[in-house]
Design goal:
The protein is mainly α and 166 residues long. 75% of the residues lie in helices and 7% in strands.
Length: 166
Amino acid sequence: MAIVVLFIILLILILAVIFAIQNSAVVPISYLIWDAQGSLAFILLLALIFGVLVGLLVTSPTFIRNRRRNTKLSKEIEALQAELEEKNTKLEMIEGQLAVEEDLPAEVPEVAPEEFPDEPAELEPGEAVEQFEVEAEGAELMDDTSPAEIEAEFVEETQEDEQEGA
């Protein structure tokens, strides 16, 4: 690739030398109160250089603005990447805690001995299905109620039992 670039530069230089040799005539130049004479090739070279400088001056504000914008955006990207890494670290920690909590045995609710007798009752096949359905409905109700509601119901039942006994 470097050889191709060098070859193109050499070709342009050869063409410029040929242009300068063929256009060596002296030409007068006038600009306002300034008058000068020089070879056509030299005058054209000066005009080319002057045009490039004017083009650079015209495009430099846009170049500088874009450079500042790119720097600002790069800093924002770095900040967002740091924030993303921090959130990923927190997420990994939370996932680790969840994994540890899943490994722990579930808490067994305390049950009063009066609620369940020591000996299981013998049921007929049809009664067992009904008993299971009643227990399943009770379990669903328990899942929807809060502990405070359960405690309030227990207190009410206890008070009703005491009033009936009195």
